[in-house]
Amino acid sequence: MLRLGAGQRRPGRVEAHAVEDAARDRGLGDEAMICIRPVHSGQARTSIANTFFNRSGSPAARTATMRRGITGFLRAALPLLLLAVSGAAHAAEPRRVLILNSYHQGYKWTDDETRGVLSAIGHTKNVRVYVEYMGTKWSSDQAYFRQLRDIYQSKFRKIPFDVIVSTDNDAFDFLRRHRDEVFGKLPAVFCGVNFFQMEDLAGHDLFTGLNETAEFKENIDLILRLHPGTKTIVFITDTSITGSKTHDLFVQAVPEYRGRLNFQLLEDVTMNDLLETVARLPDGSVVLHTFFFKDKAGRIFEYDEGIELISAASRVPVYGAWDFSLGHGIIGGYLTNGFDQGRGAGEMAARVLSGARVEDIPPVMKSPARLMFDQRQMDRWGIRRTDLPENSVVINAPPSFYAVNKGLVWGVGVGMAGLTLVVALLARLYRETQRAVRMRDEFLMVASHELRTPITSLRLSLQTLQRAERMSAKVGAELMSRSVGLAARQGERLNRLIDELLDVSRIEIGPLPLDLRDVELGAIVRDVVERFEGDLSRVGCPVAIQGDGAISGCWDRSRIDQVVTNLLSNAVKFGAGKPIEILFGEQAGTAWLTVRDHGIGIEQAQQARIFERFARVVSIQSYGGLGLGLYVSRRVVEAHGGRIRVDSQPGSGSSFTVEIPRAEPGGGERKE
Ligand code: ADP
After folding, report:
1. Do 108 and 324 contact (CB within 8 A), yes or no?
2. Domain of 323?
3. Using an 8 Å Cβ cutoff, are 550 and 513 in contact?
4. Has residue 188 been placed in a domain?
5. Do residue 176 and residue 308 come from a single domain?
6. Which atom belonging to ligand 1 lies closest to the Cα atom of 569?
């Protein structure tokens, strides 16, 4: 950081006392020390050999020799053991770095340097960092430095540092004078040393670090790039020691631009004159400001005060060379900055910690700098972001829409996602409702057709009989039997339809109640076929039953009967005129039954659907039925813990197979 001439105040607005005693904070107490005298390995070997191979002399002498031998062995081995233990202790010992800052905590430049150092050594394993602030912006006379020396001598007496990093000139000067007596001959890495020269290290070894200076050529080139019409560069600095060094450095850069640019130096002036001058600068001028801490009249300005006044008064753009002016009126520039100074020094310290010799790390003369700009000043002078060189850092940039409205963006996002979900749910609900309405309409149509057909037929049979009675005509026995048979069949059909409807509503309410008893499957099959005899012979469907002996299970007889009835009635309905086979058997405790017809068959794509409620895949004109038989059958089979499936080929016929566990009564295997 810039040094001021004697008696000048140093830049800095934050005046709070924040000196940190890192050693105390970290609770470092007295550290144990183990002193080990090295042992000659040959000596140890001889002792051990004497102990075990010297067998001459009397038993007493031998015992004495043995005692001496054991003592000798212990004497030889113990130091070796201690050496190993101390080696392990040493491996766990952390390396220690002291950051010795010239100024105080809270001073932006110093804080930036400290951050930079920490960013570079933070990655190094097992390192303890101590941060000390000398506070020389508050006091900097020789007596104070002597007091600091005495304080540090007792404060850091017990802390074995591996490397010291100093920031800015006062700490560098202090280390050059007192390092060896306070800390011992340790590697020291400096940064923030203004206009460092190799001569500064004459007579001081184990030092390396970074020069701090300004980059004027880069800044003049930057001004010409962003303001191609520039004719005059107006250079501002003060007349302090650092100011005159800065002047010299700037003057070295000038010859390269001779003939192209004029240079005007504003140095030994009062602030009032300076402000008046910049307020009247003609077009084609650009100000290059370094620092102006003290004017000709002796007025002191804080580092941000001076530039704020100058920038406000100037009628031409103002550029800078140090980052502490950024945000206070300069457009920007190729800026020397505290963070990069600290980081450079931290990197060197990290190399020392990794075993590099400090003598092998030469000081860096070109001070690190960065292209940095202030969006507010860019806007004032009409400079666009796209005009800037690559890798430029821009402060005060307007935050992105997302950054400003993070809550809103997330809120809208989440809201949209929620709405999309609700819309999707509503759409599904709508589709399901539509499907349900369609199915209900279809069902009503089918149901009215289905119910009306047997009733009409029943009514016709009864009317025939009534007419014959009214006419006192003798009804022939055959007609009588046909009419009564028909009426009975239609009554039966009606009965089945109503039962199916009742079953559906029962299933919807809850689990189907089962009356479980020991039942024989073959008996049920034979009963059903017997009941169907009339229908079977009427439509011409011979039935073959093939069963594996007596297969019984603990089932609800009427429900199993209902399933077989449904399957057989479908086989008759969809396979009229063709033979039907009913097969049953048992495998691994499960009874199975297949009803096979050779009728119209079912499309593959429809086969899963036919077990759903109201599912019909044939037209109502061709085939009757509510589309409930297979649905009810599936639910009955499932209530018995079984399953039902179909195997069908359109045009070749269908096989419906039911599998039900036989589970003995009380077996508890069955879902009910
Ligand atoms: P329904 O009681 O109206 O016959 P089901 O639930 O028993 O209704 O059958 C549903 C649909 O499955 C029938 O409308 C028919 O399209 C088809 N189906 C059932 N059994 C057979 C079969 N044996 N052959 C061809 N199609 C069948």
Report:
1. yes
2. 216-337+369-398
3. no
4. yes
5. no
6. 4
Asked whether residue 360 is assigned to any structural domain, the reply reads no
* Distance from C-alpha of 192 to C-alpha of 168, rounded to nearest angstrom: 4
Instruction: Note whether 220 and 284 are same-domain residues.
Output: yes
Residues with CB under 6 A from ligand 1: 566, 570-571, 574, 597, 599-602, 610, 615-618, 625-631, 654
Q: What does the mean pLDDT of the chain come to?
A: 83
Q: State pLDDT tens for residues 502-532.
A: 888 788 778 888 999 999 999 999 999 999 9
Query: Same domain, yes or no, for 380 and 260?
Result: yes
Distance in Å, CA 510 to ligand 1 centroid: 25
The reply to whether 132 and 26 lie within a common domain is no
Lowest mean pLDDT among 189-198, 464-473, 644-653: 464-473
Flag whether pLDDT at 301 surpasses 60.
Answer: yes
| Same structural domain, 109 and 41 | no
User: Which residue's CA is the closest to the ligand 1 atom numbered 8?
Assistant: 627
Domain match, 223 and 307 both = yes
Please give the pLDDT value at position 375: 96
d(CA 114, CA 343): 8
State whether 125 and 181 are in the same domain. Answer: yes
Together in a domain, 311 and 421: no
Q: What is the 3-state composition of the chain as percent helix, strand, coil, each rounded to the nearest 5?
A: 50, 15, 35
CA atoms within 13 A on the CB side of 281: 31
The tokens of 428 are what? 């599904």
389 closest CA partner among 253, 221, 212, 235: 221
Q: Could you tell me how many residues make up the chain?
A: 672
pLDDT of 75: 52
HSE of 237, CA atoms in CB hemisphere, 13 A: 25
pLDDT at 59 exceeding the cut of 50 = no
Report the share of the chain in percent with pLDDT over 90: 61
